Structure formats: C-alpha cells, structure tokens
Amino acid sequence: MTNDDVLNVFREAGALLEGHFILSSGRRSPVFLQKALVFSQPDLSEKLCKALAEKLKAKFGQIDVVAGPAVGGIIPGYELARQLGARSIFAERVDGQLQFRRGFSIAEGERVLIAEDIVTTGLSFRETVEALESLPGEVVGGACIIDRSNGRADVGCELVSLAAVDFPDYDANDLPPELAAMDAVKPGSRGLA
Ligand SMILES: O=P(O)(O)OC[C@H]1O[C@H](OP(=O)(O)OP(=O)(O)O)[C@H](O)[C@@H]1O
Ligand SMILES: O=C(O)c1cc(=O)[nH]c(=O)[nH]1
Ligand SMILES: [Mg+2]
C-alpha cells in the first residue's frame, strides 16, 4: 500500500480530522488521525495490518510476541500478531507508567515486536521499549500504521511503518494564529484519570 492508499483508508473512515488537537506528547496539531474509527472496522484493520505484516516478515523474520501500548496499540498489535503467527500482549498505564499486567509474560529468547498505531514524537514507543527492559525476550524492532513524523521520531528501536507522512505539530506556547483562535480538544487516553 502507498502512503496515499493508507491515508485514503483513514479519510474514507472519517478518521482524518482537522481542527486543534492536543496530542499525547502535549504538542498541538491541526490534524488528527482518529485510528479508533478505522480499527472499529475489522476488515480495514485486517487490510492495513496484512500489508504491514508483509513488510515486517521481510525485515525481521520470525516474531514470537507482539507488544503494544494501550489503548491505540492493542488492536493493531492483536491483528499483526494474527498475521505473523505470534502472541499478542499489551502494556497499560498505571499512575502514568506503562506496565505489562494481566499475567502477560515473555519467555527467555522470544523475539518481540513493538506495535503502535500512530507515531508522532516516539515518546509512547520509547516508554514501551523501557517497559520491556525488565522482561525476558529480545526486542527486534517496532511497527506502526502511520509515522506522522516521517521518520524523524526516535522510537528507541528500528521502526517499520506502513505509511510515513509529514503532519505539522507545534509547541503549545508557540501556536500559529489559526490554531490559537480555536479551542483545543484532546482525543487520546494519556493523562485521563
Ligand atoms: O509518538 P507519541 O508522541 O507518543 O504519540 C503517539 C501516541 O499517541 C497516541 O496515544 P495516546 O497516548 O494519545 O492514547 P491512546 O493510545 O489511548 O489513543 C497514539 O496511540 C500513540 O500511542
Ligand atoms: O500524537 C498523538 O497523540 C496522536 C496523533 C494522531 O494523529 N493520532 C493519534 O491517535 N494520536
Ligand atoms: Mg497510544
């Protein structure tokens, strides 16, 4: 799939939003990819993850465990695991810190892939890498559906994206006038009680 093919899936699902958004990192953007609207359609999740899984097989070979950060990483992580013949686990925030709970485990020597929906600054990805450090297994790399930093984000491991695009984001104290004129909304889960 090309970048345009992937963006068209989001556009047709009504998931390519315009406005004033507060991102997970606290940065602001006039564009938001509401992935939940795409992942609410299993055929679309399957289509995107199948194309991404082909790239991942070629790059990393055998994967035993796919680990994604909640909430956004759960569905693509599960569908990628299905496509790759791997297990799927997820990390969730406890007092703001990502932890693997619910009895999830990784065995010594297992090959682990980190799966995300969207990468902006790479912060959530790096936190997932950190959460995996105290567990057995080898992180062989990472995957995301859309890298909106177009390859600039440091994710703490080798990243394969299905699409890489350049969407603007700004410091909250340095907004362009058209964004400053709009009320901001925060769609993600980070920081919610
Ligand atoms: O690269 P980053 O700057 O970390 O931004 C990307 C992250 O932001 C979103 O998660 P969010 O914390 O908003 O919550 P969600 O997963 O519940 O949507 C998205 O799912 C990624 O995890
Ligand atoms: O950076 C984010 O928080 C973010 C951006 C985006 O486009 N979509 C999303 O779910 N999160
Ligand atoms: Mg997330």
From TrEMBL:
Belongs to the purine/pyrimidine phosphoribosyltransferase family. PyrE subfamily. Catalyzes the transfer of a ribosyl phosphate group from 5-phosphoribose 1-diphosphate to orotate, leading to the formation of orotidine monophosphate (OMP). GO terms for molecular function: magnesium ion binding; orotate phosphoribosyltransferase activity. InterPro entries: OPRT, Orotate_PRibTrfase_bac, PRTase-like, PRTase_dom. Orotate binds at T120, R148. One of its GO terms (biological process) is pyrimidine nucleobase biosynthetic process. Homodimer. Residues 45-154 form the Phosphoribosyltransferase domain. PANTHER family: OROTATE PHOSPHORIBOSYLTRANSFERASE, URIDINE 5'-MONOPHOSPHATE SYNTHASE. This is Orotate phosphoribosyltransferase. The gene is pyrE. Signal peptide: none annotated. The keyword Magnesium applies. 5-phospho-alpha-D-ribose 1-diphosphate binds at R93, E116, D117, I118, V119, T120, T121, G122, L123, S124. Keywords: Glycosyltransferase, Magnesium, Pyrimidine biosynthesis, Transferase. It catalyses: orotidine 5'-phosphate + diphosphate = orotate + 5-phospho-alpha-D-ribose 1-diphosphate. Its cofactor is Mg(2+). Pathway: Pyrimidine metabolism; UMP biosynthesis via de novo pathway; UMP from orotate: step 1/2. Its EC number is 2.4.2.10.
